[in-house]
Amino acid sequence: MLTQPEHKTTILRPQAILFDCDGVIADSESVIARILADEITKLGWPMTPEEEQRRFRGMTGKMLEAALINHLGAVPEGWRARIGACINAALTEELQAVPGVFEVIAQMARHGRKMAVASNSGRRELELKLSHLGLLAQFEGRAFSAQDVTHPKPAPDIYLKAAAACGVAPKDCLVIEDTAFGARAGIAAGCNVFGFTREHDPAMAELDIPTFSDMRDLPALIGLDPLP
Known about the structure:
Blueprint: E1 2-3, E2 16-19, H1 29-42, H2 49-56, H3 61-72, H4 79-94, H5 101-110, E3 114-118, H6 123-132, E4 143-144, H7 157-166, E5 173-177, H8 180-188, E6 192-196, H9 202-206, E7 211-212, H10 218-221
Parallel strand pairs: 2-3, 2-5, 3-4, 5-6, 6-7
Antiparallel strand pairs: 1-7
């Protein structure tokens, strides 16, 4: 079901779908939040996984480190690299796909919809997630990380790059994002944006964009046959 402001209209038949990764394709947010909350607490800033997601979800590792330095004054040398390795190890063991995403991607492919992934993760982490889920080949040449652009989200660069890789104008693309941070990047790029919100997100609500909560609903929302 699509929830949208009354003055909005449902976007039908976009030529390309541009997916965020964490929380949209990979059900990785809880794993990452647990590790980061624990490690940030060890640095001296008590943090729960819920607060970590509220404060930092969608940020690059570099942005997170800058926020920690601003709050704490400093972080240990090599902290970001060490935490990145911990997250990658945990994802290798625990990562699952967002429910319904495999069926949705298959449906898009059957109907000839072009697809790309645009993530604020580092390149190695993004490739690990897609490979673990068996989707690396599906997005070959159309999977972009924060390291592939000069300015990561919320700047529009990564969605402009993803649209260009699909050979589609941004206005004919639909971005699927689970954070307001990323949704702003899609909006700034001139794309249509749907918020994927499995839980109420006040920040997403402030953006006044259509939202949906079940990934399996996406095909029907863009004019394709509903999933059985």
